[in-house]
Write a structure and sequence with these properties.
heterodimer; A: 122 residues; mainly beta; 0% helix; B: seven-stranded mixed beta sheet; four-stranded antiparallel beta sheet
């Protein structure tokens, strides 16, 4: 079955960096686009970034452009999120999610990991 | 960016009630809409995609409708396991955007 397991969260000071990982199993990782989605404590869901199955395209939400970088290693079936210049407002649970095709071959967030908590605080 | 307006933000309902949650997109998204259920401390789970297609393994008490800008999620007979927060999300274009969520609570 599809499994996505995030790691790398923790407490970090403002302005510092952190790298999240998402280990995938149960499917052919190199065939799917994958995303990061976050949820601040007690708040709603916010999409952060996506990377195409082959790494050829990447998109980000405006608030993280220039600070966060999404990447993947298909040989290791692992997704990454490098987070630099962290701010208090980046505090959230970060989920990785995998694309699933719908009936028209568009893609939605079909499978999610359990998330990893990032706390930005001095 | 496409804005998603979800209502109500919360509702109280009884076991067995029929419940409807609505979602409105700021522009035409065809049927590129997915509904998620999230329970406290858990990851979201997809229920309905393509506005009206039931995700595998999801019970048929959940149904989705709509196209263009106006959508709805209906739970036909609310059960204890359905008390959760529900989100709509458009996947017509990036950035992907979510509605603000609807918390369904026990009356």
């Amino acid at each position: 079955q599809v499994q996505l397991v995030e790691s790398g969260g923790g407490v970090v000071q403002p302005g510092r960096s952190l790298r999240l990982s998402c280990a995938a199993s149960g499917f052919t990782f190199r065939s799917y686009g994958v995303h990061w989605v976050r949820q601040a404590p007690g708040k709603g869901l916010e999409w952060v970034a996506v990377i195409w199955h082959d790494g050829s395209k990447k998109y980000y939400i405006d608030s993280v452009k220039g600070r966060f970088a999404i990447s993947r290693d298909n040989s290791k079936s692992t997704l990454y999120l490098q987070m630099n210049s962290l701010r208090a407002e980046d505090t959230a649970v970060y989920y990785c999610a995998r694309d699933q095709p719908d009936d028209s071959s568009a893609y939605f967030l079909g499978f999610w990991g359990q998330g990893t908590l990032v706390t930005v605080s001095s | 960016d496409i804005q998603m307006a979800q209502s109500p933000s919360s509702l109280s309902a009884s076991i067995g009630d029929r419940v409807t949650i609505t979602c409105r997109a700021s522009q035409d998204i065809n049927n590129y809409l997915v509904w998620f259920q999230q329970k406290p401390g858990k990851a979201p789970k997809s229920l309905i995609y393509g506005a009206s297609t039931l995700q595998s393994g999801v019970p048929s008490k959940f149904s989705g409708s709509g196209s263009g800008t106006d959508f709805a999620l209906t739970i036909s007979s609310l059960q204890p396991e359905d008390f959760a927060t529900y989100y709509c999300q458009q996947y017509k274009s990036y950035p992907l955007t979510f509605g603000g969520g609807t918390k369904v609570e026990i009356k």
